[in-house]
Write a structure and sequence with these properties.
Residues 202-233, 545-644 are annotated as: Disordered. With 644 residues, the protein is an alpha/beta fold. Helix content is 32%, strand content 11%. Helix 2 packs parallel to helix 3 (74-85), helix 13 (310-329) packs antiparallel against helix 14 (344-360) and helix 14 (344-360) crosses helix 15. Bound molecules: adenosine-5'-triphosphate and zinc ion. Zinc ion is lined by residues 159-160, 162-163, 433-434, 437, 439-440.
Length: 644
C-alpha cells in the first residue's frame, strides 16, 4: 500500500495516512472507488456506512460488487472486497442510514475526516450539519453523468453544504396534477401518486381525485360539480381510494371507469377550468375493445420502445393491477408496496396510467422507456466520472490531513474542456462561509412565509421542518411565550397536530425557536403570513430576511450557477485564467509538482477510459424517495454543480 512504501508520500503525510480514522458515507458508485483508493493509499482505519443492498444494475460500475453479491449489504460487501486488497486494514461496515440517531455528534467526532459519497440532498444536509457541529472536515462529492464536483466543507473556513440555496426540487402544484395536467410529467406524477394510493404508503398530499378546492374552478365547483361529495378539504374522497379498490376486489374495469370516466366527467363539470383549456375526453373500459388494436407487446424491447395506444395501455393496466394486488395481498397487515421503477408491474402500472391520462387530456403519450426515465429521474451514471471524482476526493483528503485547507478548492469536472482547455476546473479560492446561512451562521435564522390560516402544525413539522428544512426530530416553541408547539417526544404534542397555525397564535410576526437535538441544530423562524394564489405552494422559506424588503433595497444580483444555486457575493467563479493543461490546477497557474503526492495520486485528466452508460434500469431501490425527488429538474449543463 502506498503509505507503507517509503518515498511515495512525504513522511509526515505517510504517518497521518497510517494514523487517521476516516468515515466514508455511501458505498455506491463513488463510495466503492473512494474505499479502494483509501485502502491502496495505506489508510488503516476506515468505517463505511450504506443503507442499501446491492442491485444487479450497480454491477456495471460498482466494481467491488459481483453477481453473487446481489441482494447483500453494500457496506458489508464493499468491506470484504476492499479487505481482499489488504487484509490488514481495519474496516468497519454499517448497513444502516447515516441519518438515524445511532450516528450522533460523538460518533462523528471519532474521525479525522468524513468523505461523503451520497446521492441525495437529505443525507448530505444531515452529514453537513453533524460535521459542522463535530467540527470534522467533510469532503463532499457528487457526479451527474459526465459532470462531477468535489468540495471541502470545514467549519468557519468554507461554505457549508447548505450555504447556498440549491435548485428547488421539481414539484408540481396539486391542482395541476389532479385537475389540469398539461404535460406528460404531470400524468406520470399523478400515476405514481395513484400507485401509492392503491398499494403504497398513502399520503394525503398525493390525492389523485379531482380537487374541488381548486381556486380556479371558483364557485361553480361548489354548485354543479357534485359538491355534496366533497369533503371539507374539497377532495372527492367519497371513500378512501384503497378501501374502495379493495371493496371492489381491485377489479381493473371498475377502477378504470372510476379514474378515467367518472372522475374525468366530474372534472368536466368544473367548467371554469375548461374556459381556456381543451377539455379532457373521458374513457370507458367497454368502449376500448372496439378500438380493435393489438394486445400489448410482450417482447421487452418493443414493450419499452413502443408508444402504446389507449387500448394497449388499458391491457397493461389490467395485468399490472392483477399482479400488484397479489403482491400487496401477500404483505403483512399494515405493510405496503414501495414504487420501484425496476419492478416490472410497478413500472407497467405507472406507464399505463400515465399514458391513459395523457390521452384523455390530449397530451402526447410516451414510451415505457421514456416514462421510466422521467419517473425515475435518471441521469446516466458514468463509471469514469465516479473514478476521477473519487481520485480528487482522496487527493483533497491528503491535503486536509496535512492541514492545507486553502489548497482544497472546489473542483468541477466537465464533459468538454472549457475555453482554457480544462476538463477539471478548480475554484480560484476557498468559498468562505455565507454569514447568512441558515445552518452554519452564528445564529441561524429563516423567514417562513406561510398560509397560517390553513397550514396545520403537523404540516409545519412534516413538510416544512423535516422535509424542506431537513430536520430529524424538531422541538418547536413560541419565542417569548415558551409555549411548546411541537415536541420530538412521541405523542407529547399530538393534540396540536391538526390545529391550524393561527389557532396556536403562530401568526404574522411570530417567532419560533426550533431545536433539533439529533443534529444539535437551533434555528429561529420568523413567520410571515401569506395567502397563496392558485398553483402557489402554501409556504416559502426565505433564508435571507433582507430579500423580503422592498425591491429598491435589493442588493446587487448574486452570481449563480446553471442549476440555480446562487453563491454568496464572496464566492468565486471557477478560475478563468488558470493554466491551460488538462489537469487539476493547484494554485492559479501552478501544476502539481512531479513526484509530489498529488502528482502520484492524481487522476490524469485526459486519460478517460471507456465510458459505461448506465442502462435504463439502474436507479436504486425506491425506498429512497428523497433521492428520486432530488434528481428532478437537474440539467446537464457544463456548469453543473449538483450532483448525483
Ligand atoms: N442516508 C443514507 N445513509 C447511508 N447511505 C446512503 C444514504 N442515502 C444514500 N445512501 C447510499 O449512497 C450511495 C450512493 O451511491 P450511488 O449514487 O452510486 O447510488 P446507487 O443507488 O448505488 O446507484 P444509482 O442510484 O445510480 O442506481 C448508495 O449506495 C446509497 O444507498
Ligand atoms: Zn452554511
Amino acid at each position: 500500500m502506498a503509505a507503507q512504501i517509503a518515498g511515495v508520500f512525504e513522511p509526515s503525510l505517510q504517518e497521518k495516512i497510517s494514523n487517521s480514522k476516516i468515515l466514508v458515507v455511501g458505498a455506491g458508485g463513488i463510495g466503492c472507488e473512494i474505499l479502494k483508493n483509501l485502502v491502496l493509499s495505506g489508510f488503516q482505519d476506515i468505517e463505511i456506512i450504506d443503507l442499501d443492498t446491492i442491485d444487479v444494475s450497480n454491477l456495471n460500475r460498482q466494481f467491488l460488487f459481483h453477481k453473487e453479491h446481489v441482494g447483500k449489504s453494500k457496506a458489508n460487501v464493499a468491506r470484504e472486497s476492499a479487505l481482499s486488497f489488504n487484509p490488514n486494514v481495519k474496516i468497519k461496515a454499517y448497513h444502516d442510514s447515516i441519518t438515524t440517531t445511532n450516528y450522533g455528534v460523538s460518533f462523528f467526532q471519532q474521525f479525522q475526516l468524513v468523505l461523503n459519497a451520497l446521492d441525495n440532498r437529505a443525507a448530505r444536509n444531515h452529514v453537513n450539519r453533524l460535521c459542522l457541529t463535530a467540527d470534522v472536515p467533510l469532503i463532499e462529492s457528487g457526479t451527474a453523468g459526465y459532470n462531477g464536483q468535489v468540495e471541502l466543507i470545514k467549519r468557519g473556513q468554507t461554505q457549508c453544504y447548505e450555504c447556498t440555496p440549491k435548485a428547488a426540487q421539481k414539484s408540481f402544484p396539486g391542482c395541476t396534477i389532479r385537475n389540469t395536467p398539461s404535460e406528460p410529467i404531470h400524468c406520470i406524477v399523478w400515476a405514481k401518486h395513484l400507485f401509492n394510493q392503491l398499494f403504497g404508503e398513502s399520503n394525503e398530499d398525493e390525492d389523485v381525485s379531482p380537487d374541488t378546492a381548486d381556486p380556479e374552478a371558483g364557485a361553480e365547483a361548489g354548485e354543479s360539480a357534485l359538491a355534496a361529495d366533497a369533503n371539507e378539504k374539497g377532495n372527492v374522497d367519497r371513500v378512501n381510494t384503497r378501501t374502495w379498490a379493495a371493496q371492489c376486489g381491485y377489479d381493473p374495469e371498475k377502477i378504470f371507469n372510476k379514474l378515467f370516466y367518472d372522475d374525468i366527467n366530474y372534472l368536466l363539470s368544473m367548467s371554469n377550468l375548461w374556459k381556456s383549456r381543451t377539455p379532457p375526453n373521458p374513457a370507458k373500459w367497454d368502449a376500448l375493445e372496439e378500438d380493435g388494436e393489438a394486445a400489448a407487446p410482450t417482447d421487452t424491447v418493443l414493450r419499452d420502445q413502443k408508444v402504446l395506444s389507449l387500448t394497449e395501455s388499458a391491457k397493461v393496466f389490467g395485468d399490472a393491477i392483477g399482479a400488484l394486488k397479489d403482491a400487496f395481498g401477500k404483505l403483512p397487515d399494515g405493510d405496503h408496496l414501495v414504487w420501484d421503477k425496476d419492478d416490472k408491474y410497478a413500472m407497467d402500472f405507472v406507464a399505463a396510467c400515465a399514458n391513459i391520462r395523457a390521452q384523455i387530456f390530449n397530451i402526447p403519450r410516451k414510451s415505457r422507456f421514456e416514462i421510466k426515465s422521467m419517473a425515475g429521474n435518471i441521469i446516466p451514471a458514468i463509471a469514469t466520472t465516479n473514478a476521477i471524482t473519487a481520485g480528487v476526493v482522496v487527493m483533497h483528503a491528503f491535503r486536509v490531513l496535512k492541514g492545507e485547507f486553502e489548497k482544497c478548492k472546489s473542483v468541477y469536472m466537465r464533459l468538454r474542456p472549457n475555453a482554457r482547455n480544462q476538463l477539471f476546473v478548480p475554484d480560484r479560492a476557498l468559498n468562505p462561509p455565507n454569514p447568512k446561512c441558515y445552518v452554519c451562521a452564528a445564529k441561524p435564522e429563516v423567514t417562513l412565509k406561510v398560509d397560517t390560516k390553513n397550514v396545520t402544525v403537523k404540516e409545519l413539522r412534516d413538510d416544512i421542518l423535516i422535509k424542506a428544512l431537513n430536520m430529524i426530530g424538531p422541538d418547536v416553541t413560541i419565542d417569548g411565550k415558551g409555549t411548546i408547539v411541537i415536541s420530538s417526544e412521541e405523542g407529547e404534542t399530538d393534540c396540536n397536530n391538526d390545529k391550524k397555525l393561527e389557532e396556536l397564535q403562530i401568526v404574522d410576526g411570530c417567532i419560533l425557536k426550533v431545536d433539533d437535538f439529533v443534529q444539535n441544530y437551533e434555528l429561529t423562524v420568523t413567520i410571515v403570513h401569506k395567502d397563496p394564489a392558485r398553483d402557489e405552494p402554501s409556504f416559502d422559506i426565505v433564508a435571507d430576511p433582507e430579500s423580503l424588503k422592498p425591491k429598491e433595497d435589493e442588493p446587487e444580483a448574486q452570481p449563480s450557477t446553471s442549476n440555480g444555486n446562487s453563491k454568496p457575493s464572496t464566492s468565486t467563479a471557477p478560475a478563468a485564467d488558470d493554466d491551460d493543461d488538462m489537469c487539476i490546477v493547484e494554485e492559479d497557474g501552478e501544476k502539481p509538482a512531479a513526484g509530489s503526492d498529488e502528482a502520484e495520486a492524481g487522476p490524469s485528466g485526459s486519460s478517460s477510459g471507456p465510458e459505461k452508460r448506465k442502462n435504463d434500469d439502474t436507479e436504486g431501490p425506491s425506498t429512497k424517495k428523497a433521492r428520486v425527488e432530488e434528481k428532478a429538474g437537474e440539467d446537464d449543463d457544463d456548469d453543473l454543480i449538483v450532483i448525483n
